[in-house]
């Protein structure tokens, strides 16, 4: 046996003498760097896989977009990657590599072998795990998450989707904050290199819930819902951290409801069960921290993450938290617990002191001295902060025109929320930028915020029409959080038309079309606005009298405006919840009015449309463009049409038709294509020839 062992050792010694393949040669021959892909998880647009990096020899996680991602989705995906790469912190998941393959973006990041805080809490609650059964261990995790968020805020970045699912904990206790897909860059606070990530709000990307919110119900702040007018800021992430702390303490989500709308309403109302009602053993100190962090009013929350984190550390170290406003007796009790060796002596001293007037007088003097010291300290801190802000604004003043240009660009493409964010940054960096104040005032009018519009327009030079309009409507509606009534809105719309403020006309129409309105109120609004906007055409061609065909079936979600030849524009119909629409025999010239409608079937036959460039309803299954001037079908390559009627249209070539692999049936007219072309089409799908 010993002889065999010696021979075996000798065999391995011989192997050691063999020359290995040089790494230089091996790496230089690598063509496909990543291999051995395995599925991990996926979301609405994103796919996560593990793969092996042949250049480094390690296993990593790769994120990529699913098939058929649009360009704006790819842009948002890449900006998320660039933003994550800019955040280098031990509690933020590191990004390793970024690239394109077949025009599809991907990035690789650290593979975390562990679980999410959500799963860990569920396991502890079910008694399946003891890894974080101790509250102090869970608080350690929370403190590390606070470190990551505080660092991101110092770089001028908001996470805006903090929740237990996005907190990964490795088998060895590493804590990583993940998924920066909804992150937002604060223009006035960020570094210069991060400005490239400060872009338009990706409204065309499926990152929102029912088109109303960005974030996760139960963990989002009130200002992230459509029910609040407050802007998102550092306090938004603090609210979400408060919700995570609530889950750590109670093992329950803070806000409940039978549907998303009810959850959002409870969030905005601050309607949730106190932590102590779920578990009476939860320390009052931590419950008070939750309540303060989850205040509905952002100004009542913690000023920054460091303040919230300090409260948790105070509790961990045996101190009272500021949030609970602890009485003197509790402060003394905590002191005694922290200094057990001195407890007996302290009790004796306290007992003697309580029975002497000297203690009372001395205590008052001490409180007065402390108050004066605190006041002096607060004054010094305020002065320091003021100097820092003035230096910061002066340093970034030259960036203001860039943000103003971005605001103008966003406004021209009807991205009003982005435009308002950009112009806010512009005037914050340079309050002397007069044109920016005027654009800001216009945007507030479009948002029906007339009080804010007046304040902005007072600082601009051009005050005549817009200033008078804002002033008049401020008398009608002084609350900027409320919307105009339908009659008042129509009056505002008519006034913008009469005074030829067409950029305002289009602005308020686009903005109103994005609002969440009951269907009957939306129908009434659309009817009136369409009549107002087409009044000149009606007066000129139809002598001021027309009968409007407008019918919507809420069951089938079919919208019928056919046989209205006087309709030339109907932008107010954007975002209308129609699944099918009939606009045949109308005067519309493009597809702009159908933007953001969830259409599956559309009929624009006998209309004035001559091109498909403005068609953005990529979910269409059936399209009728017969008797139109449309000739180029290239746009249809982006869609998955099943039925297409192009009879008596200007289409005279079959090249694009042959590339539409999802087509099942087309309608053409006699002689539209050659017999050979018709036979080729019939070999691919059903062809119906009209006379």
UniProtKB/TrEMBL annotation:
Q: Which residues form a coiled coil?
A: 361-390
Sorted alphabetically, which InterPro entries does this protein's record hold?
Answer: Kinase-like_dom_sf, LRR_dom_sf, Prot_kinase_dom, TPR-like_helical_dom_sf
Keywords of this entry: ATP-binding, Coiled coil, Kinase, Membrane, Nucleotide-binding, Transferase, Transmembrane, Transmembrane helix
What GO molecular function annotations does the UniProt record carry, in alphabetical order? ATP binding; protein serine/threonine kinase activity
Matches recorded under SUPFAM superfamilies? L domain-like (SSF52058), Protein kinase-like (PK-like) (SSF56112), TPR-like (SSF48452)
**Does Kinase show up as a keyword for this record?**
yes
- Work out whether the entry's keyword set contains Transmembrane helix: yes
Q: Locate the Protein kinase domain: which residues? A: 34-313
One Pfam family here: Pkinase
The record lists the membrane-crossing segments as 342-361
Among PANTHER family, the record links this protein to:
MITOGEN-ACTIVATED PROTEIN KINASE KINASE KINASE 20-RELATED, SERINE_THREONINE-PROTEIN KINASE NEKL-3
The name this protein goes by in its record: Serine/threonine-protein kinase
Organism name: Lentisphaera araneosa HTCC2155
Lineage at the top is: Bacteria, Pseudomonadati, Lentisphaerota, Lentisphaeria, Lentisphaerales
